[in-house]
């Protein structure tokens, strides 16, 4: 296919498309990309990583998965989820990259299709749950899939990881977004009151309700009912919830008349529900109903590279009028702590730091991070570990990153290349 034919193909596509050579250089874009990126600035002749990420080096040298590098090795189309910098701010996008080959089978250029991920944008617009790590991008993919249907979702993960934020994101991306999102704190309602809180109370029944009482199921009509810490659901309520899930019907206490519920149910637990079924604390049939689409929300220590994004977002929320920055040393401390309390603990550190900071920069002395003497959770401080932790902070700025690590830029580039090779599956490498 000639360059003219490729250009014509790009212009006919409704989604943003780019054509670039094997050295990351953009050689053509369509009108949709100009609108998406910046109609005032030409992208022709610039690198894709400069235009989309504001980097001075390729994505695979900055700790991210690069679809071009993967496609160059595999010779096949590749798909990844990336965060792009656009005139509207940071947006998650789905990248589909296709290699173009000459008659001899050699790759001469690449066509990239960009599709903004609506759910990913919704998840990051109003919440403090942000990230660009592999585990976070995997979570985003699952959130988008869950939002596209009414399937029952079970969110699993440690306390403080942001399971309710994920549930809200699924709701906002679904067809029920305009309807209520109702939270049921299963650990905060006594067993005696749970049934009436959930299903309501019939008029004139045993309680002193003269006009009847709406339950949380009624309040969620047409929307989403979020069962937080569902592992604490009383055993006596479990068969009634199972009936609601299986038939969409329930009865208010004091009534024999069935009522219909048009709701979507998302559950969350910081405990192993499967183990609770084995001890008899949780019904097996209910577990399988709730666990139709399981989603694991990763612990913060498993996505430390997301901390710079989280820190900037949280500091802006905590002190919106102070324009606070975070020193390199403070950021390094924040990136080397294991966070048993996850994002909730990170926020506590930053709230205290904002209070103690009297200037415009949060420094290490403002952070009340406890010493970590547990060898099981102490993070490694090898060169490679420090490199991985600092990459997100200085991504796109090789000079500063090299200075923080105490090496030359040439040495840093060599170590980055070695790290990328070790991270790629053996089957993806060329021999």
Automatic annotation (TrEMBL):
Domain of life: Bacteria
PROSITE patterns per record: SIGMA54_INTERACT_1, SIGMA54_INTERACT_2, SIGMA54_INTERACT_3, SIGMA54_INTERACT_4
CDD domains to which the protein is assigned, alphabetical: AAA, PAS
Gene Ontology molecular functions: ATP binding; sequence-specific DNA binding
Domain Sigma-54 factor interaction intervals: 129-355
Matching InterPro entries: AAA+_ATPase, AAA_lid_NorR, HTH_Fis, P-loop_NTPase, PAS, PAS-like_dom_sf, PAS_4, Sigma_54_int
One Pfam family named in its UniProt record: PAS_4
GO BP annotations, alphabetical order: regulation of DNA-templated transcription
SUPFAM superfamilies, per the entry: P-loop containing nucleoside triphosphate hydrolases, PYP-like sensor domain (PAS domain)
Keyword ATP-binding among UniProt keywords: yes
Keyword terms of this UniProt record: ATP-binding, DNA-binding, Nucleotide-binding, Transcription, Transcription regulation
Keyword Heme annotated: no
PANTHER family xrefs: ALGINATE BIOSYNTHESIS TRANSCRIPTIONAL REGULATORY PROTEIN ALGB (PTHR32071:SF113), TRANSCRIPTIONAL REGULATORY PROTEIN (PTHR32071)
Protein name per Swiss-Prot or TrEMBL: Sigma-54 factor interaction domain-containing protein
Origin species: Oxalobacter paraformigenes
């Amino acid at each position: 296919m000639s360059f003219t034919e490729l250009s014509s193909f790009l212009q006919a596509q409704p989604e943003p498309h780019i054509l670039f050579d094997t050295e990351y250089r953009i050689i053509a874009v369509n009108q949709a990309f100009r609108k998406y990126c910046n109609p005032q600035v030409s992208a022709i002749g610039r690198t894709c990583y400069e235009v989309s990420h504001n980097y001075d080096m390729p994505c695979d040298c900055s700790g991210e998965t690069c679809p071009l590098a993967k496609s160059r090795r595999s010779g096949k189309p590749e798909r990844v989820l990336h965060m792009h910098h656009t005139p509207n701010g940071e947006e998650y996008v789905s990248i589909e990259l296709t290699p173009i080959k000459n008659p001899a089978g050699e790759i001469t250029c690449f066509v990239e299709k960009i599709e903004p991920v609506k759910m990913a944008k919704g998840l990051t617009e109003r919440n403090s749950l942000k990230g660009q790590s592999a585990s976070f991008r995997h979570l985003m993919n699952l959130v988008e899939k869950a939002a596209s249907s009414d399937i029952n979702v079970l969110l699993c993960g440690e306390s403080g990881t942001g399971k309710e934020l994920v549930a809200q994101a699924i709701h906002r991306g679904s067809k029920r977004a305009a309807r209520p999102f109702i939270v049921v704190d299963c650990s905060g309602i006594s067993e005696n009151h749970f049934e009436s809180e959930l299903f309501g109370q019939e008029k004139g029944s045993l309680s002193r309700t003269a006009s009847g009482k709406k339950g949380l199921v009624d309040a969620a009509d047409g929307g989403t009912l979020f069962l937080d810490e569902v592992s604490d659901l009383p055993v006596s309520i479990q068969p009634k919830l199972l009936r609601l899930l299986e038939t969409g019907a329930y009865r208010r206490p004091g009534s024999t008349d069935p009522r219909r519920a048009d709701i979507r149910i998302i559950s969350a637990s910081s405990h192993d529900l499967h183990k609770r079924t084995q001890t008899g604390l949780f019904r097996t049939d209910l577990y399988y109903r709730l666990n139709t689409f399981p989603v694991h929300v990763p612990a913060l220590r498993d996505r430390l590279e997301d901390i710079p994004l989280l820190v900037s977002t949280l500091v802006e929320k905590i002190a919106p009028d102070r324009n606070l920055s975070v020193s390199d040393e403070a950021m390094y401390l924040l990136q080397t702590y294991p966070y048993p309390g996850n994002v909730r603990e990170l926020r506590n550190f930053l709230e205290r730091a904002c209070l103690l900071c009297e200037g415009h920069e949060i420094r290490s002395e403002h952070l009340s991070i406890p010493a970590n003497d547990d060898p099981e959770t102490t993070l490694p401080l090898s060169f490679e570990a420090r490199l991985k932790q600092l990459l997100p902070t200085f991504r796109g700025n090789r000079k500063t990153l090299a200075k923080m690590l105490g090496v030359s830029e040439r040495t840093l580039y060599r170590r980055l290349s070695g790290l990328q090779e070790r991270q790629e599956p053996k089957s993806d490498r060329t021999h």
